[in-house]
Amino acid sequence: MSSSGSGNFDNVIKTGLKLKGGDKKNKEVGVKSAKKKKKSQQEALTEELQAQADLEAAETAELVKGATRGPTVAEKAFQMAREKRTTGRIGEQIKYTHRQRMDRLNSHLASLSEHFDIPKVGPG
To answer: Which long-range contacts (CB under 8 A, 24 or more apart) does 8-13 make?
Structure first.
């Protein structure tokens, strides 16, 4: 082995250091270029949930739109018949006072036979 000091450094490259990935614009040492940020897993999950919520909102809006279509022909006929019956019932009730209705009921009950009488229950 040679004891000369320069013999250990014969294989050393003496040129400047070449940095990988450096922009041509940033030639200064230590200046880092702006890196693109990757979406974190949580942000990706948040976006996926938001998209799913938007889809569900669209579906519910579609259902509400379908539910407010209005009455069918049968439903309209039923409502008209019900209104007609109600007006007929009200007309009958307006025709007589309460006293007249009670008199009619009493006369009807008086015309019935004793078979329909209310039997006595208990002592007395």
So the answer is: none
d(CA 60, CA 55): 9
**Alpha helix segments (H runs only) across 1-124:** 41-67, 73-95, 98-111
Q: Which residue has the tokens 């938007």?
A: 54
Provide the CA 56 distance to its chain's centre, in angstroms.
7
Chain segment 53-107, per-residue pLDDT in tens? 999 998 888 887 776 778 899 999 999 999 999 999 999 888 889 999 999 999 9
pTM of the predicted structure, to 2 decimals: 0.31
Please state, as a whole number, how many other Cβ atoms lie within 10 Å of the Cβ of residue 85. 10
Cβ-contact 61, 68 below 8 angstroms: no
